[in-house]
Amino acid sequence: MTIDSKLKAVIDCFDFPGHLIECLELKTGHINTTCHLRFRQDDGAVRDYVLQRINNYVFKKPWEVMENVQLVTEHIRASMVKQGLDPENRVLRLVPAKGGGAMVEDGEDGYWRAYDFIRHATTVDRVENPAQFRQIGAAFGAFQGMLSDFPIERLHDTIPHFHDTRKRLGDFERSVALDALGRAAGVPEDIAFIRDRGEAMCRIVDLIASGDLPLRVTHNDTKINNVMLDIDTGEALCVIDLDTVMPGSALYDFGDAIRYGASTAAEDETDLNRVALDMDLFAAFSEGFIANTAAQLTPTELENLPLGAMVMTYENALRFLADYLDGDIYFKIDRPTHNLDRARCQCRLLSDMESKRDAMDGIVAGLCRRFK
After folding, report:
1. Is 193 exposed, middle or buried (0-12, 13-18, 19+ CB in 10 A)?
2. Model pLDDT for residues 110-124, shown as the tens digit of each residue
3. What secondary structure does DSSP assign to 116-155, as a single string?
4. b/e per residue 131-162 (b: at least 16 CB within 10 A)
5. What is the reported pLDDT for 260?
6. Nearest to 253 by CA among 148, 358, 356, 120
7. How confident is the model at residue 285 (pLDDT cuts 50, 70, 90)?
8. What is the pLDDT at residue 1?
9. Which option is the CATH number for 5-119: 3.30.2310, 2.40.160, 4.10.860, 3.30.200?
10. pLDDT, tens digit, for every residue of 21-70?
11. What does the alpha-carbon distance between residue 102 and residue 155 come to, in Å, rounded to a whole number?
């Protein structure tokens, strides 16, 4: 990658030891511009770093995002040390700017941050086997566990109402009423599906409001490709992509991982007969997650983990359907019915979860007895 003067000026603002020998743009991810930097040290060794430009169209207050990231990574590192664990290569480490702080502004409304590169690791986009998903569950569970004593009031709420199901329902009803492209008449069964489950799917929001569920540090993007895995052993090393870290419920992190990783089909599958919840994958992730959270989460949290999977599936279904009714203005599409296809896929997955709820509850209850 050719390093232009503007990028070089940004790089020079960070306290990287050694001299730059290579800069490669990484094409993974859809939000932030990311570069892999390599620096040769005085002793000849090469050290690797990640440089990212924060997308401040998505993240309106990047300084709040970075404060959250810094607080959370420092807490995890301290927690690991307290447990006698080596945090090296297992928690993101921010590279400080030369002027202090963890972020650099480039003068053109661009905000940049840098991390140590997680070595000898890779990510996957689809679950390959239950053992791999168990590792990913363990990683997100450890993330929750190590942050269970974090003072939640210190975190910024960087995306207000992110998982406020009642607000999402209100937005959905406005989309139905507006019917911007006249599409509502063609999807009455889909609209009815969302409406019929609305009250039940607001239970997590209600439990938080009543104080029966505590607010915790939540990752809010628990897709499998946000866990770095050791290339040789497959062991989970580090949870990455912390931009959406903020106060929420542990049920949301558990639920979104299940929704995405334990489905038998892609998120936009059109053959709904292929869409189901893989119970082996559900059990594997649950085992990894609960092993690292059973001592910290409350009984109400643990018993409602399956509800988290259902609520997150429901939330995505109503968001996809609302965007279809709005004219596809939020989610990128590859075909005219893409958002409708996504919505129907999530509705089918939720229907399958409903039929398997007793089995899901049984697996979680058994794991809680095992690890308590």
Report:
1. buried
2. 899 999 999 999 999
3. E--TTEE--SS---HHHHHHHHHHHHHHHHHTTTS-GGGS
4. ebbbbbbbbbbbbbbbbbebeeeebbebbeeb
5. 95
6. 148
7. very high
8. 52
9. 3.30.200
10. 999 887 654 445 789 999 999 999 999 999 999 887 778 889 999 999 99
11. 16
User: What is the rounded CA–CA span in Å between residue 206 and residue 217?
Assistant: 18
Residue 200 exposure: Cα atoms within 13 Å on the Cβ side: 12
Architecture of the domain whose range is 130-371: Alpha-Beta Complex (3.90)
260: amino acid identity, one letter:
Y
- Number of residues in the chain: 372
CA-to-CA dists, residue 264 to 217, 286, 315, angstroms:
29, 17, 19
Whether the Cβ atoms of residue 117 and residue 92 lie closer than 8 Å to each other: no
Query: What is the C-alpha separation between 73 and 286, in angstroms, rounded?
Result: 24
Round to whole Å and give the CA distance between 59 and 55.
Answer: 6
Q: In what helix (H) or strand (E) does residue 371 lie, and over which residues does it extend?
A: helix 357-371
Q: Give CA–CA dist 286/280, Å, rounded.
A: 10
* Domain locations in the chain as residue ranges: 5-119, 130-371
Angle at 13 between CA 12 and CA 16, to 5 degrees: 65
Band the pLDDT of 237: cuts 50, 70, 90. very high
